[in-house]
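INFO batch 0412 | record 1 of 1 | parsing
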Amino acid sequence: MTAHFNPPDIQDNPEGWGPCAVPDQFKDIPYQPFSKGDRLGKVSDWTGATYQDKRYLGKYNSQFGSGQQYTYYHEQDESTFQLVDTSKTQKPIYLRNRMRFTQRNLRRDRERREQRQQANMQTLTKAQKERQRQVRRLQKQYGKRRWPENKQHAPPKARNASVTVRSEWAVVEDLDFLRLNKLKLPDMPEPEDLKKCGELEYYDKSYDRVTTKLEKRLARVNRLFHKVTTTDDPVIRKLAGEGNVFATDIILATLMCCTRSGYSWDIVVQHIQGKLFFDKRDDSEFDLLTVNETAIEPPQEEGNHMNSPRNLALEATFINHNFSQQCLKMNGEKHKFPLKNPFVSEDDDTHVASVAYRYRKYKLGEDINLIARCEHDGVMVGSNGETQFINIKTLNEWDPKVSNTPEWRQKLDSQRGAVLATELKNNSFKLSKWTACALLAGSDHIKFGYVSRVNPRDSSKHVILGSQQFKPSELAAQINLNMDNAWGILRCIIDKCFRLKEGKYLILKDPNKPVIRIYDIPDNTFSSDEDEEEDDDDEEDEDDEDADDEDA
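INFO prediction complete | emitting tokens
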């Protein structure tokens, strides 16, 4: 049997070599070219990130490159695919917390309803009764609101002006704080000391070692403090020819720092013969120290409550007077100025507080010479044996729970900076005035005493918890007090008053707006002559009535 040879079909490729078309049996089978020299790596690598080392990135790559023969495509779904944005839409600010507050209120109402139902169905335990008593006590203390922090939602109460504005008073000038904050008077020359009066006691350095664990009881010191206004000062009357503007340091500091004030205050201005006299009213509360005036929630109590603004001011003034004398070496050696205290007569037996006065002359430019009476509270010996003059002031704590401030007994020793920062925020106006007074007087240091109530519910007993000392210039930088701006404000007010015709004027801080107004008032307003005239009229009426009775 002979073998038969069937030759295969040979395709003629005139353009090259190899088959011209894919055979039918291999038509639908995918093919990826490869080389026998390619290295074999992972059996299956679906991610393509198996080899992270850069040295081996191309180690297992084919010389023909990565083929797309095995890529899956679904032709029917590709044309209908759409990209959907699943990001959360941003709600406006007024709608962001609405749902949360609504759910909270609904949950709170449901809890209250369930508590009422349970209270009706069962007898309350002692703990539950005590809890209800605490809630009632909190509601009584903070009003009908549930918690103390809801106090911030209460509308602010309208404050009263420091003096009742009469209908015949005319507004001649409005000064808003926004414009005053932009004023500046740089490069003030050094002042000239005209007279020095009084005597000072030395500071007792043992009070620098007082801490919350070694506290001292605040003593009641019976000494007389003279708060004499400008025109009643005999020394200023003698110095009337030395300048054309006259004031005390506290009046000047109030005007300089007026943009930080919140409560109402007033100053009387007399324009006489080309001179300006800045005075405080008789029987005014100008010298009282405010408490938490610039806080977010100032004291809101009314009437005779011990935490009302006026009672807190009286308490702070009482504390400041007593501490400023208690921390001195009383009845010891004194530093005396050339002249005696101008407000003490020789036959006066009362004990006068340690105080000394500097009458200084400031040149504000354009022939404006300011005569200011400045004060020192004490004296101390420096590290090199030099004499240093100091001002002594007091910061007081009344009720940390009501004022929402950190408790001094826990924080003062370890976090004194935080305590001082809170005081700077809540009493910005008061601290600025103290710093300005120390700078005007040329004091070397200003000392702060930290005094707290023994019991927050008793405003008559206090303890000293510590003290702190600053240089006035450093303290001014710390509380952001710009003296160039302060002098600019004062110069602006002086210029406004000089432009007015001669007469009597009142500078009044609006109780509810950041504005000070200058009123033109009659010459006999706030003067003793007005009271005397009223008394004379009353006596004349009584004499007329007596004469009528005799005739009858």
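INFO post-check: Residues 144-153, 529-535 have pLDDT under 50 and may be disordered.
INFO record closed
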